[in-house]
Amino acid sequence: MSDQPQLVNSKLLFEQGNLEDFAAEMERADSVLPRHVNADPEGVEHGLAKLVLTLVELLRQLLERQALKRIENGSLGDEEIERLGDTFQKLQARMEDLKRVFGLEDEELNLNLGPLGDLL
Amino acid sequence: MIYLYAIIDRPAVPLSDIPGLEGAVIDVLSYQNIGAVISPSMTSEVPPTEANLWQHEAALEALMDDRSVLPVRFGTVLADEPAVQAALVAHYGEFTANLNRVRGHVELGLRVLWDHNDVLSLTPDARPQTPSGNGLAYMSARLEEERKLEVRRQRAEVLAEGIHMPLARLAAESTRRMLITPRSLVAAAYLVERERVAGFRQEVEVLSSTHPELRFLCTGPWPPFSFVAMSNEQ
Question: Which of B18, B71, B229, B231 is deepest in the core (most CB within 10 A)?
Fold first, then answer.
């Protein structure tokens, strides 16, 4: 269709320039969780790894936040905190390894839980 | 196969000359006082190219000129006309209720960006002393990070509410999502009476001048995509 730019412009009710910034954020939001696991042979491994690592990372963060809440409440002793911290540190290091292996960036794994953060 | 664009009211009103996807002729299948806007399709998977997406959008907008429209998501293809007819019958109540809700309204979109790093640097730096053990140090650092995030969330909540509330007052319905990315303070959609679009735009302008630190983008009018809860078509 030849009048696409005109259509796009007619949809901008109020803007302050730098539409690229908005476009970049929308793309980022879109890429946070895979809509579909890419089923072509080359993409399927990457897609599945992303999905699985996203879930593992979500669980790791959930557990970590629970531990942090308990620390804040004062319900954990120094020894327990030390042990938990050590475990989470190792988990994080392992995740870093896995991300490297599959060539995934933090951003792709939805590290920001957004509104979910309030539930944790 | 049949490509589905929208569910409309007033199906008897003749269609103005609306081109369909890939040059197909658009038609209306009616049931009682509603109709499904369709065109024949050669494929069950219409490629989501920019041209196709705009064509779908253009068809919806032409329809919106003289009737209420429930936009159907791009790429919805049904087996044949009887399948479309069956969907009209099965979801008749839902469709008419939705048509009544959106009548005379359009959707406006709002996105606001903020610089979250500014907010982070504003938080008090109450770094805990580093304890001897590795695990303790790690947990303390995490705790501090978490506190900063919480400050950021609260600040975002206040800012977003201050922007959303005056706009929501101008709308019949609204949806709002915060921080879908760290920079995206708020992404919202508003169902606004057609006559109030100019006033809404003005309010966005006022808000943007009150918040020079934020960046605003308001788009529309769109078909009411965010305000129609359609059951999955079979």
Answer: B71
